Amino acid sequence: MRSDTRAGRLPEPSSPIADDGDAIRFCRTCAFAGACLAVGYGKPELEALHCLVEHVGPYRTGDHVFRTGDPFRAIFAVRAGTVKTCLVDRDGREQVLGFYLPGEVIGLNAIYPEQFPCDAIALENAQFCRFSFPAMSALATRMPAVQQHLFRLLSKELGTASLLAGDHSADERVAAFLCDLGSRYEARGFSGTRFALSMSRGDIANYLRLASETVSRVLTRFRSQGLIALEGRQVELLDADALRQLGEGLLPG
Amino acid sequence: MRSDTRAGRLPEPSSPIADDGDAIRFCRTCAFAGACLAVGYGKPELEALHCLVEHVGPYRTGDHVFRTGDPFRAIFAVRAGTVKTCLVDRDGREQVLGFYLPGEVIGLNAIYPEQFPCDAIALENAQFCRFSFPAMSALATRMPAVQQHLFRLLSKELGTASLLAGDHSADERVAAFLCDLGSRYEARGFSGTRFALSMSRGDIANYLRLASETVSRVLTRFRSQGLIALEGRQVELLDADALRQLGEGLLPG
DNA sequence: GCGGCATCTTGATCAGGATCAGTCCGGCGA
DNA sequence: TCGCCGGACTGATCCTGATCAAGATGCCGC
């Protein structure tokens, strides 16, 4: 499944990648960057934080990072590529829970059940930082900043999950989806208005609890209204304000 | 609003109440009971855990426990009564996020934004244990069991939130709602098949993203099918298996 | 180039649940 | 006792988005 451990040799030059960390410093855009900075450089805790990180990948498009039922031992920060998490009900229908960009963290919902409640599948070739969770929570007891970070990550994801549960029209959902993706790309240092959708229309639809035909239609209409430019999976938000207004009902904040 | 601190004097004899804790011991059915037991009796940490708990209430039906925008300083465990949490969008429409029974914890989604993102409203006269969050997370760094508990509580709520986000029929939603309530009552030591719905049909509908008329119709049909007995807000699950099967698509596990 | 396949788009029809409207019921205060 | 009011139930109609169906487009291997 994986080729080898040498990084930076992915045949995907246009794919966003988090800036590289090294033995001294985490990626600046990583979800754990704050925790890392908080301890300052050279402290023994920093070394501890690095000891429990393991770079894994590359995974190829369609590969599983983890599967439903796998024992929970670690959480993963996306270093490169994008991932979707999805659960598969017993009828075999999958339900997309979320998309994760470089710098974001997957696996938090496995803490309680102690096994992964969902699959995580690479949407593009992807790499990860793997944080052993026992080691991480042990470290968290010594480093309040790390504990704080974990609490915040969990709480944040809780907020976004409940927003999606609301009853909103297809237009609202799609608009909010585009705005959310944009602001997340922007937060990680990429363009917030021009980006590629790494997931299929079907995945978007599944995530938004719509039919893929509906997503197509809404996107087409948004384009004809001049709200977005669209070419295949490449999208540009032309009127981000209008989109944000449309989607405000389920946008964070 | 509150009368005094003496417990057990609520004018609501039929309302479920978590068993009483005292200075030495937490309520056995409380979400924090495990953390409490883990430290053993008489240890200094136990005293610390008690120092940061404050019994608050009683609140009367309709009272706010906290409001959207209130600065986040504490989480609350329900001691008696039931609560709903709901966010109010700028059009003034409210969206119910969840119902909380004795022993359950509210306020976890406020950690990240550092202010409450929703209102919490008592559905019956209610009392709470208030846990100062700064004190609690400080304690968590010294007591791995407390930290573990917080992680698990957060992760668990994450799981339930994403289940509700799926696209399911009205029947599935209502069936799952009834089963979930039943098993939660059971887990806290009450009957899992006979209980009173402390919330209105409108609240149920809002929570399930349905119209209240739809909830009425589904409940009526369930009754005519012999799945439940229903009299006002008093409900009995007559065929819990059938209900569970109906709702399995969005039931935890 | 070509065929094969998955993805995307567009159109026509259908259905589940929302909405609107009317009635009933129980609780409460005057 | 009465009238009021909010909550609950039921029926009729409407509308959004799902489903079914048919092309269009793009991608890959050969």
Which key features would you list for this structure?
Jelly Rolls; alpha+beta; homodimer; globular; 21% strand; DNA-binding; Arc Repressor Mutant, subunit A; 8 helices; disordered N terminus; 253 residues; 4-stranded antiparallel beta sheet
Explain what you see.
The structure is a homodimer of 253-residue chains. In chain A, the strands form three sheets. In chain A, strands 1-8-3-6 form a four-stranded antiparallel beta sheet. In chain A, strands 2-7-4-5 form a four-stranded antiparallel beta sheet. Chain A folds into two domains: 33-164, Jelly Rolls, CATH 2.60.120; 170-250, Arc Repressor Mutant, subunit A (Orthogonal Bundle), CATH 1.10.10. In chain A, α1 (33-39) runs antiparallel to α4, α5 packs across α8 (240-247) and α6 packs across α7. The first copy, chain A, has eight helices and eleven strands. Chain A is globular, with a radius of gyration of 18 Å. Helices cover 37% and strands 21% of the residues of chain A. At the A-B interface, α3 and α4 of A face α3 and α4 of B. The structure holds a DNA duplex (30 and 30 nucleotides).
